[in-house]
Amino acid sequence: MTTQTYSICVGSTNPVKIRAAKEAFELMFPTVSLDCDGINALSGVSDQPMTEAETRLGAQNRIRYCLQADSQSKSDFYVAMEGGVDLFEEGPATFAYVAILDKSGRLLTGRTANLPLPQPFYQRLCANEELGSLMDDAFKTSNIKQKGGAIGLLTNNVATRQSIYTQALVLALAPVLHPEHYTN
């Protein structure tokens, strides 16, 4: 019996993002074999997106970059994640947008929940610091963005960068599982 294989191109070489994509697809397609690789995809936005709109655009731009880089259209899915920050009515928060493009050209976009940020951290971000570097400084860690991220540090690893990316990707994949309910 031949097992179906999905080829997934992740718009990042960050191991956290690659593992999150692989985990989400394993959860949603448990009988499918996965070939999941990352490429260094440009976001076309600032290193630290500071609005929801910029963050969403960054994820979608990474998808477009993956599609263009895959000149032979070998991938079944293109996946990207972009973390960002914004100031909401409740205060500053970090979150991420996820984007998935399937072979048919359907773009699926999702978003994680907000993680509240301390006001002093937000002020440093407004002064052009990047969240990963700021967190490494505040918590005396190294390269936290390729580990649990700010989410892991601020939740004592109850949630992690990977876990929230995985959850957002799972939710964004619902239309792939039930296309009959998501017709335009």
What would a concise description of this structure say?
This protein has 184 residues and is of the alpha/beta class.
Explain what the structure shows.
Its EC number is 3.6.1.73. Homodimer. It is an enzyme of class 3 (hydrolase). This protein is α/β, with parallel strands linked by helices and 184 residues long. It has one domain: Maf protein (Alpha-Beta Complex), CATH 3.90.950.10. The protein has seven helices and six strands, in the order E-H-E-H-E-E-E-E-H-H-H-H-H. Strands 1, 2, 3, 4, 5 and 6 form a six-stranded mixed β-sheet that branches. Strand 4 and strand 5 form a beta hairpin. The radius of gyration is 17 Å and the shape is globular. The mean pLDDT is 93.
